[in-house]
Structure formats: C-alpha cells, structure tokens
Design brief:
- The chain is mainly alpha-helical.
- The chain has one domain.
- Helix content is 31%, strand content 7%.
- Strands 1-2 form a two-stranded antiparallel ribbon.
- A hairpin with a 5-residue loop joins strand 1 and strand 2.
- 5% of the residues are buried.
Length: 147
C-alpha cells in the first residue's frame, strides 16, 4: 500500500496518509462513535435551530439527522455541509454566521468548525465576551498569545 505524506507549507511532514483511506489518522474510538442525532425526532429535541442564527443575518440553515455511517470528522460532499457538536450552540452560545473574529481563528488554524473542540470554542467565545466587556476589539494576535 502506497503512503502519501501530508506536509505543511514548509514541506514538514505533518501526518502520514494511507492511499485510499483519508481518515486512517482517526483513532478507532472516535470513528466508532455514532451520533445521537440520527433521526428526525432526535434533531427536533434540540429545540429551535433558528435560535442559533443571528437575527437579520439572512443565513439559511437546515439541520438534518446524521446517517449511520457519518462521523463528526468527515467532510461533507462539496463542502455544502459540516458537522458540529451541539454543545457549541446550546451551551457556549456560538451563532451563525460566525463573527469576523471566529472566522479569523478558523482561518489562522486552517480548521473547519467541526475540528475545534467544544472547550476551545468556549475559550474563543469567552475571549470575545471579555473583549466586548472591556470595550476592545478581539484581535487574533492577542488571542493567540493566550491560546
């Protein structure tokens, strides 16, 4: 089996990838977990997903159940959708569309929203709230000096 190497912009090897299985890097315990939201009834228990969208944003979202073979780390076909931990919206208060600061953090980390652990989302959101409280704009440079 041929093995390709994923490298960063400096050519440093980051993760070996087995050809044909782009998810081989995921631990078995993670890939074995099935979503609790695999039918319409469980999705409806989340409440009103529109409350996760900022008012007057014009964002149109649909919240659908996960298929039995779908996992939070998998990429949606054509990037038309992504998976998220519900606690990010329910408990931490992140809303769509993401703020400019949240988009900047994702861009700087080169991560999809689902790749950020809920605890890290709490830190991102907490930093935004702290900066709002002290009347300052949240800056990526300041955030990453702490994170």
């Amino acid at each position: 089996m041929a093995v390709n190497r994923l490298t960063d912009e400096n050519g440093k090897t980051v993760v070996p990838i087995s050809e044909g299985d782009s998810y081989a890097w995921v631990k078995g315990e993670v890939s074995d977990l099935v979503s609790l939201f695999c039918d319409s009834a469980s999705v409806e228990k989340l409440g009103d997903p529109l409350s996760w969208v900022r008012e007057d944003s014009g964002v149109k979202l649909r919240f659908l159940p996960c298929g039995a073979d779908e996992r939070v780390f998998k990429r949606g076909e054509g990037w038309k959708y992504f998976y998220m931990f519900t606690t990010v919206f329910v408990d931490i208060g992140v809303r769509f569309p993401f703020t400019q600061f949240e988009c900047g953090v994702l861009s700087q980390l080169k991560c999809a929203p689902s790749q950020i652990h809920p605890n890290a989302w709490a830190f991102i959101r907490g930093f935004e709230i702290l900066m709002e409280y002290v009347g300052k704009e949240p800056l990526l440079e300041v955030f990453f000096s702490f994170f």
